[in-house]
Specification:
This protein is 25% helix and 14% strand. It is an alpha/beta fold. Strands 2-3-4-5-6-7-8-9 form an eight-stranded mixed barrel, surrounded by four helices. Strand 2, helix 1 and strand 3 form a beta-alpha-beta unit. Helix 3 runs parallel beside helix 4. The longest helix has 19 residues. It starts with 18 loop residues before the first strand and ends in a 25-residue tail after the last helix.
Length: 326
């Protein structure tokens, strides 16, 4: 994902954004398989294709063509083109979500309030809000994590939705130190590119690397610039995949699925060894996240996926985990 007006990657940023899987120095433990996999296909079953959108120079998207290409979901940056994309994506049947590019040097609550105002009220079948965390802008790791946590809590309290967090492995590992923090209870959208954003070369990658803050991932951004183009979009676009069918996707990322039945579950206590921020255990959004986690656990128990070795577990989405390898 990208900050406004910064759609093209500079070669100097390679290894700092959207990880490249072909460099063993950067990713010695990156799982690889023979053959190219530019779309991040799920070896266990269906793959749902999506995109994330930050429109440069106000370019209009033809959502009819986007939908016809098999794109089933899209998260949109709350920028100048958001209102049009938000309206037209829904009209063409594409599941829609909103995200904000986080600027750690700016007050987190001010950013969150601006995001909420632009996004507006969410329908039950709209996707959970997402925060893109990939720059520090001179702030310390602790300040970035604290600001992220405050943004997450504020948006969750206002919407009753669990927030999805987007980042990429080397930033979270090398810049933020991949802390063991309760922020890891939120779903992870991980950027680990299988297509070099400068040369267009396709690397062999089975699944993305997951920072130790999380136990697994939910969404995988497989490519940005130089990735497979999408009809109806006149610029390079970020491609994303979810390993599962649309029914499962809706259960995980909306309030319209079976994981969100009318129940009032009690949020589980957080591990006492994990740092927390005010309101985490009692936030109303925790009820929703607990329901999602329970549903994913049920899916895992009944999964037909091939059992994983312990060293493979972190590379597999939570809802496809067939055994407990923690």
């Amino acid at each position: 994902m990208h900050a406004p007006h910064n759609r093209r990657l500079d070669p100097r940023t390679l290894g700092q954004r959207g990880e490249l899987s072909g460099d063993p120095g950067l990713f010695p433990d990156a799982p690889k398989v023979a053959g190219s996999n530019p779309h991040g296909a799920n070896p266990h079953g269906p793959t749902l294709q999506g995109i994330d959108v930050a429109s440069p120079q106000g370019h209009a998207l033809d959502w009819s063509l986007v939908a016809a290409d098999g794109i089933r979901f899209a998260w949109m940056q709350t920028d100048a083109t958001f209102a049009r994309n938000w309206r037209e994506a829904r009209a063409k049947g594409v599941l829609r979500g909103a995200y904000q590019f986080f600027r750690p040097e700016v007050n987190a609550i001010v950013q969150a309030d601006k995001f909420l105002l632009t996004m507006g009220a969410l329908a039950a079948d709209d996707l959970h809000p997402m925060l893109d965390v990939e720059v520090s802008h001179g702030m310390t790791a602790a300040q970035v994590i604290d600001g992220t946590a405050r943004w997450v809590e504020h948006v969750e309290d206002r919407t009753g939705r669990p927030v999805v967090l987007y980042t990429y492995p080397s930033y979270w590992r090398d810049t933020l130190g991949q802390p063991l923090h309760s922020i890891g209870k939120r779903g992870l959208w991980i950027a680990h590119y299988v297509v070099d954003p400068v040369s267009g070369k396709v690397y062999n990658l089975r699944a993305p690397i997951v920072p130790r803050t999380w136990s697994s991932w939910l969404l995988w951004q497989t490519s940005g610039n130089k990735g497979p183009r999408v009809p109806g979009i006149p610029f390079d676009i970020d491609r994303d995949v979810f390993w599962g069918d649309e029914a499962t996707f809706r259960d995980v990322f909306t309030l319209a699925g079976i994981a969100h039945a009318d129940t009032d579950p009690i949020p589980p206590p957080l591990d006492s060894s994990e740092p927390t921020w005010p309101g985490t255990p009692t936030s109303k959004s925790q009820d929703r996240m607990r329901a999602v986690r329970e549903h994913l656990a049920d899916l895992s128990e009944g999964s037909a996926a091939t059992p994983l070795r312990a060293d493979e577990a972190k590379h597999t989405p939570l809802h496809l985990r067939s055994d407990d390898h923690e």
